[in-house]
UniProtKB/TrEMBL annotation:
Classification via InterPro entries: Kinesin-like_fam (IPR027640), Kinesin_motor_dom (IPR001752), Kinesin_motor_dom_sf (IPR036961), P-loop_NTPase (IPR027417)
Protein name: Kinesin motor domain-containing protein
GO biological process: microtubule depolymerization; microtubule-based movement
GO terms, molecular function: ATP binding; microtubule binding; microtubule motor activity
Species in which this protein is naturally found: Aphanomyces astaci
Length: 381
């Protein structure tokens, strides 16, 4: 679909990230031609662009891509766009490379297909309507829905997540942004970092994770906060995010160094007792209503960006990558429908806590992966 382009040029020895900038004009020219080829009628005939598909129609887990636009300061740093969106479902990453002699250049274009791709012109409204809205509706109807955010540091993950929160709150509280008399909305929010789990609504107090009689992992000693309006829900989520561990990285001044797991349970008021905030010191009963789980995965980093990290930061990065791997292995194991039905949930606390929602019967899930367009952010295995 995308031809390889290569050519010769003289140049000094340099690292590959610097080379991408130094030879940016050459790379940009070839990428422009590749984009014209992608837009040609011949390629459009074989495009997978058959119109948008609703996550509520497909069920199971889907993966969506959102490409962020170039930022105003990036061209000044000789950055350029190496990610192309082809149709509704295809993304092409133009990996700008140098041969071993660091003089000859080539572009290796990688084509990936997803449930849907949102280009840099898409709005957060577009993302919500297509991805999150069906899942929120499923939770309101009594089902279990999971929305996961994943992205490299600096890819626009936080921007997308905050916008989705506002739309979700408005949808959960449609009557003048307040709950109906028959509805109770309960929120819990925890941070997971390696083997540690803390309550973000109780000033980072340690939370115990244990199994209930059904074999599902549950949080003990976690605060459950009742919310009765869209404003109260957003305030609660922000309170939790303010307590989340962040740290400056080489890419972003404020990067999340942990996983944020927020559970929003929609209960029937007739079967629940309400209080503003309570701590579940004993084993909590299984929620009787719908559950919307929001998972913001820790920002991933390239190996080059962690080169100057301290020993503690490197260990932290290893823990983050290990939990990402555990989640990926669980999803893959479930997708292959192993004859033994074995899914390795026990590999991390994150996957243990997701078991009763992400892999429950009738649950629906989506991953929104945010992508940076810049050349120095490209890393293709």
């Amino acid at each position: 679909m995308v031809p390889e382009k290569q050519w010769r040029d003289k140049g000094d020895m340099m690292d590959k990230r610097t080379a991408r900038k130094v030879h940016g004009a050459d790379f940009r020219a070839v990428i422009s031609q590749l984009r014209r080829d992608l837009a040609s009628p011949k390629n459009q005939e074989h495009s997978d662009d058959d119109g948008p598909e609703s996550s509520s129609e497909l069920g199971g887990m889907q993966v969506f891509i959102r490409k962020r636009p170039m930022l105003a300061h990036e061209p000044k740093k000789k950055e350029y766009d190496v990610v192309s969106c082809a149709g509704n479902r295809t993304i092409v990453v133009h990996d700008c490379q140098m041969y071993a002699d660091m003089k000859r250049k080539f572009i290796d274009s990688h084509v990936h297909t997803f449930s849907k791709v949102f280009s840099e012109t898409a709005t957060t409204d577009d993302v919500f309507d297509h991805v999150a809205k069906p899942l929120v509706g499923h939770a309101i109807a009594g089902g279990k829905s999971v929305i996961m955010m994943y992205g490299q540091t600096g890819s626009g993950k936080t921007h997308t997540m905050s916008g989705l929160h506002e739309h979700m709150a408005d949808m959960l509280f449609p009557t003048n942004n307040k709950a109906t008399s028959s509805q109770i909305v309960v929120v819990t929010a925890v941070e997971i970092a390696g083997a540690k789990c803390v309550d973000l609504l109780r000033r980072r107090q340690k939370v115990l994770v244990c199994d209930d009689e059904a074999g599902n992992s549950r949080l003990l000693n976690v605060v459950e906060r009742d919310v009765s309006s869209a404003a109260a829900l957003l305030s609660t989520i922000q309170d939790a995010l303010d307590m989340r561990a962040t740290e400056a990285t080489a890419v972003n001044a404020v990067s999340s160094r942990s996983h944020f797991l927020c559970s929003i349970t929609i209960k029937d008021a007739a079967s629940s007792s309400s209080s503003h905030s309570r701590s579940s010191l004993k084993q909590p009963p299984r929620p009787s209503g719908g559950v919307l789980t929001l998972l913001d995965l820790a920002g991933s980093e390239r190996n080059e960006d962690s080169f100057h990290h301290s020993a503690d930061r490197r260990r932290e990065t290893i823990e983050i990558n290990s939990s990402h791997l555990a989640l990926k292995q669980c999803v893959r194991a479930l997708g292959t429908e192993d004859a033994n039905g074995f899914v390795p949930y026990r590999q991390s606390i994150l996957t243990q806590l997701l078991k009763h929602s992400l892999w429950a019967k009738g649950s629906r899930a989506a991953v929104i992966a945010t992508v940076s367009p810049i050349a120095t952010g490209t890393y293709v295995r």
